[in-house]
Amino acid sequence: MFANPHPDVVIIGGGILGCAIARYLSRQPGVSVTVIERHGLGEQTTSQAAALLTRIRPYRELTAMAMETFHAIDELGEQTGEPLPLRRVGSLQVAAESAGRQQIERTAARAADVGVVAERLDADTAQQRAPWLSLSGDTAALWLPDDGYIDPYSLCQAYAADARRRGVSFRLRQTVAELRQTGNRVTGVRLASGETVTAGLVIDAAGPWSTALARQVGVHLGMAPVRSHYWISAAHPAIPADGPMTILPDSGAYARPEVGGLLFGLRDPQAVTAHPGQLPASLQDFCFDQDPNGDAALEAGYHALRQQLPLVDELPLAHYVSNVSSYTPDGFYLLGAMPAVEGFMAATGCSGAGIGMSGGIGRLVAELASGQAPFVDPDRFRLDRFGSIDSYHPDFIHRCAEARARKRTG
Q1: What is the mean pLDDT of residues 77-102?
Q2: Source organism's superkingdom (predicted)?
């Protein structure tokens, strides 16, 4: 396929956000879009995600964006006649401590506000739904039957396939070496091959590599690479394949079935980070310098986890998956333009929510890029909201790590 050297929009990054944005932009008549990815689509951070999909989020904007992802999944399945592999197993939130109970109450109230089904359960009923749990009689539980999880690679590929059908060009295994700039306007990109691709708009959707790219044009993105990780146990008869996702605010953990075993993630009490300017070109076999096998994190979170999941004592661990997530200090994403830098937008900093928010982020960024009225207020996601920062400074990286450490849902 002929590569357009002068598209209207260049998207850097063929992960789930880049592909989702391309899919929504492809609906704009007369807009030519090229996605440039130095690996294959969805091969880096996207494919390693746990991919829990929940509709109800802490803020109205986030809830609307999460629900857009569910809408996109349904629509993509209808277009092809082959439903995407969304496991609609429901989500179960359980908590015995005060803070967790309050989180459940807030979730129930938000669900009622937007018309999402949410049912309060007693501890016995909750335990029947998720037999790997052991709950005290005073445990609060909330059941949301329409939540689920999905293979993130499949969703990424579905976004890309729809974008291709509508004319988007994908240039794979080609590296963006430089953002080209004239004055205060970004004019395109130079590839490692030496080729220049000019564009009216460049969207930096390169995940944890976005920071280094944006610094080339004087944009300091307010995020840092922070570890997210999970474990997968060997198969166990107490874990039904159709069991729900379980969200455990008391321990900052989550768990769901996976190939007969249990996949579970833990919050790092001391979050582990990497330097955003020193990431390798590929994350295959990448390990963080600190606690590279997750042993310290598992030991630190084990006691709290086993209070509600004592079965963990019986589960031989089969796999450990460590991923790089881009966290901002406030947990909101980085979406939109940077004032005083024309021709440039970013779509990154998804703070561990990239899969679940992909439809909403894709739609919002496409609307901002094409000058349409955004379907949610984009103000929370402004690139300049942290003021003057140095995205490479250890103090700022620490601020981002603290956001990960505060997260209570895994």
Answers
A1: 94
A2: Bacteria
Instruction: For residue range 188-225, list pLDDT tens digits in order.
Output: 999 999 999 999 999 999 999 999 999 999 999 999 99
| Domain at 300, CATH number | 3.30.9.10
Backbone φ, ψ for residue 78 (5° rounding): -65, -35
Specify whether 301 is located in the same domain as 236: yes
Q: What is the pTM of this model?
A: 0.96
From the number of C-beta atoms within 10 Å of its C-beta (0-12, 13-18, 19+), residue 313 rates as: exposed
Minimal CA–CA distance to 82: which of 197, 175, 162?
A: 162
Domain presence at residue 75 = no
Q: Specify if 358 maps to a domain.
A: yes
Mean pLDDT of 126-152: 96
Quickly count: other Cβ atoms within 10 Å of residue 206's Cβ.
27
Residue 231: phi and psi, rounded to 5, are -120, 150
In the chain, the amino acid numbered 71 is H
* Amino acid letter, residue 404: R
Q: What is the pLDDT of residues 257-300, one digit of tens each?
A: 999 999 999 888 788 999 999 999 999 889 999 999 999 999 99
E-strand spans in 328-400? Answer: 334-338, 341-348
Tell whether 201 and 281 lie within a shared domain: no
Which secondary structure element, helix H or strand E, spans residue 264, and what is its range?
A: strand 261-266
Residue span of the structural domain in which 249 resides: 87-148+226-323
d(Cα 366, Cα 48) in Å, to the nearest integer?
25
End-to-end CA distance of the chain: 42
Task: Indicate whether 388 belongs to any domain.
Answer: yes
pLDDT at 410: 43
Cα–Cα distance measured from residue 168 to residue 31, given in angstroms and rounded to the nearest whole number: 9
Residues 219 and 171 in one domain: yes
Instruction: Answer yes or no: are the C-beta atoms of 68 and 77 closer than 8 Å.
Output: no
Same domain, 265 and 388: no
Question: In total, how many domains does the chain have?
Answer: 2
Half-sphere exposure of 146 (CA within 13 A, CB side): 13
